[in-house]
C-alpha cells in the first residue's frame, strides 16, 4: 500500500507537470497540421505567463490573468501568422524571433513595472487558480491505498488541468470529424487543393495559428498563476521545445500527443522524486539523467523505433498560387 | 474520330456554354493573352492547342478565376459573368482538372471529393450524403474508383478520375482539362477519352488543353489553335488535318518528318561487345549486348520503356559500371571509366531525363551551359570561373540553338521543356563529339522544337559523327535512324531497317522474333 500511495503521488505530480507540455503540444499540432511550423511555442508560452502573472497581480483576478495571457499569446501568433502566411516569410526565422522577443520583453517589462528582478509580484487566493476537489475526494483520501489514486491523480487539480485534458478529445473531434478539420488538414497537406476548391488558404491558416495562440495562452497561465504563484524570468525553461519533440514523437496526432506529454511529465516527476535518493544497484543518479530523458527518448525512438514521423506535407512552405 | 453533334432539330440553338470576348492579360512585360475571342458550344468537346507558353493555361486560369483578365468579358450560357475566384467558377458550373492534380494524397477519395463542398459541418453527415451521389456519378460516367481508398495509393489514371469526380460533384456542366494525357499511359488515355465521350453524351461540355495532336484528332469536335497569346484559328476537327494544326501552332510549315539523305557510314566510332550490366542486387539489366555505331550514321534503339535501354546508355556514358564486356570509343577502351574521362575522349551524352540528369533547374541558364564542362580552360580565369567568358559562350549558344526567351540569366526551370532541351543539346553538340548518345531527345518538347532538334541531329550525322538514339517514340526512331536495334528484356533481339512497318518493329520490341 505504501508503494501505491507513493506511486499515486508521483503520478499526480506527472499529471501536473505534463499540462503545460500538453497545451503547447496541442498548440503546435493545430498550427503545423495547417502547414505553419511553430517553433515559437516557447516564446508565446513565456509571454502569456508574464501577461497572466502581471494581470493577476494588478487586478487580483486569475480569470483576468487568463484573459490577458490568451490575448497576448494570440497577438504573438498573429505576428507569426502575418510574417509566415501573409508575407510568406521563413517560418523558422519568425518563430525564433518570437522566442527572442518574448524572452527579452518579459524580463524588461517585468523589471520596469514591478522592479523585482523581472518577476511579477507573488499572488494568492483568487489571483491564482486553486485546486478543485472532485466528489469523493475526502472519502478517497481517508481510504488510503488505491483511494489515493483518485485523490492525487484525478482529483485536486486546478481548472486548467481539466481544460488541458478536455482539449485532447476536442482537438481529436474537431480535426478528424468536422468540415473545419478536414479543410485544415487539407491545407497542411496540399494548399493548392484547398485554393482550387474555392476556400481561403490564408483564412484557414490564420484560424489555426489563433487556436495555437489560445492554447499557448492557457499553457502560460498555468505556469504563472496555477502551478506557481507568479511569473519568474524564463520560467518556461524549454518546455516549448519539449512540446515540439512530443509533437514529432506523436506524429502530429492528438491522443498520442497526450500520452507522450504524460510520459515526459512522468519522467520529470520521477526525476524530482528521486532527487538525492540512491537507486538500488546503481546508487545515486544525477538528476540531469532524468531531465535529459525526454530528448534522448525522442532521438532514439525517432531513429527507428516508432517508424517514420512524416510531417504534414506542406508544413513550413509558404503558399503561393504559382508553382 | 469525329463525333456528330446531337441531332435534334426541334430544340432552338442553345447559347454557347462559354464565350470569351476580347480577353487580354499581361504579366509584367509578357503579353500572355491578346484580345482572345473564343466560343465553346454546349455539349461539345473543344480542344485548345498551342505550344508551351502560347497562353492556353493562362486563358483557362482566367476562366477558372485563378487570375483576372485585364480586359474582356466572359459569358456563361449567354449571360455575362464576373469570375473573381475559383469559388465563383465552381458556382457557375465550371470545373477544372489541373495538369498537376489538386489532391490531398493522405486523404481518401471520398474526402478529396467533398473537400470544400462538404454540405454539412459534421464530416460523418457530409460523407454519407456524398457517398451516394459519388457512386451514382461513378456509375454514370464510368469513373470507377473506390471511394475509401487513400488517394496517394492510386494510379495516376485513377487520381485523374478523382479530379473529374470532384468537378462533377460540384455540379460542373463545363469541364476544363489541362494537358490531361501528359501523365497517362496510352491505355489510360484511351480510357479517359471514353469517359469524355460519356460526359458529352450526357450533355456536358468539355474543354481540353493540350499540345498533343493525336488526342485532338481522337476526341475533339472543334479545335482552336493558340500562338503567342492569340487564338489564330478555329476549325471543326473533322475539317482539318494534323499538318494544318501544326502549321497554325508554330506559325510556319512544320515538317513532322525531317528529310534526310541516306547515310554513308564510315569507320566504327563506338563498339560495344558482350556488355552485361547488373543492378545492386545482381539482376541483369543488360545482357550480352553487342553492336557498333559508325561515323555518319544514327543507330536507333527501339523498345518498350524499362527493357534496358536506359541502363545501356548510362553504362556507355560511364554513369553505371559494366559487369562484363567491352566498350570502345574509337581505339580507346572506355568501359568502367568515369563520365568526365569519357567525355574528354569525345563522347557526349544527352540524358533521357533532363530534369534529373541534364540540368540543374535552380541555376541560371548560362550556368547550365557550362555544366559538366566547367573545367574547360576556356571557362577559367585563374582558380575562378570566368563568368564573362561563359556568359558570352552562352549568348552565342542561345542564338545558335534558338533558345527562347534569349535571356541567359533566367532561371533554367522557367524555360519551357523544348527550350530546356535545346540548352542540353546545344551544350553536348557544341563539343563536337565523335559519338553522341541521345536519350528521349524530344520528350515533352513542342513540335516546332522537335523539328529543330531533329534537323540538328541529322546535321551532326552528316558531319560524319556517330549517334546512338534511344526513344520511346517509335515514330521518332523510324524517321531519324539509319538502322534500328530492338531491345527486349535487356537483350538486343533484332535489327531492322527504319522502313520496316511499325507493326513488325512492335512485334520485335515485344520479343517476338521477326
UniProtKB/TrEMBL annotation, chain A:
GO CC field: plasma membrane
The protein's name in its UniProt record: Sugar ABC transporter permease
Pfam families xrefs: BPD_transp_2
Record-linked PANTHER family: GUANOSINE ABC TRANSPORTER PERMEASE PROTEIN NUPQ, SUGAR ABC TRANSPORTER INTEGRAL MEMBRANE PROTEIN-RELATED
GO molecular function: transmembrane transporter activity
Keyword Transmembrane helix carried by entry: yes
Residues that span the membrane, as ranges: 7-30, 50-80, 92-114, 159-175, 206-225, 231-250, 257-276, 288-306
Location(s) in or outside the cell: Cell membrane
Mode of membrane association: Multi-pass membrane protein
Primary location class: membrane
Natural source organism: Prosthecodimorpha hirschii
Keywords noted in UniProt: Cell membrane, Membrane, Transmembrane, Transmembrane helix
From TrEMBL, chain B:
PROSITE patterns listed in its UniProt record: ABC_TRANSPORTER_1, ABC_TRANSPORTER_2
SMART domains, A to Z: AAA
Main location, first listed in the record: membrane
Top-level taxon of the source organism: Bacteria
The entry's keywords: ATP-binding, Cell membrane, Membrane, Nucleotide-binding, Repeat, Sugar transport, Translocase, Transport
Keyword ATP-binding attributed: yes
Membrane-traversing stretches: none
Membrane topology: Peripheral membrane protein
InterPro entries (alphabetical): AAA+_ATPase, ABC_carbohydrate_import_ATPase, ABC_transporter-like_ATP-bd, ABC_transporter-like_CS, P-loop_NTPase
Subcellular location: Cell membrane
Example GO molecular function: ATP hydrolysis activity
Matches recorded under Pfam families: ABC_tran
Protein name per UniProt: Heme ABC transporter ATP-binding protein
Organism: Prosthecodimorpha hirschii
Upper lineage: Bacteria, Pseudomonadati, Pseudomonadota, Alphaproteobacteria, Hyphomicrobiales
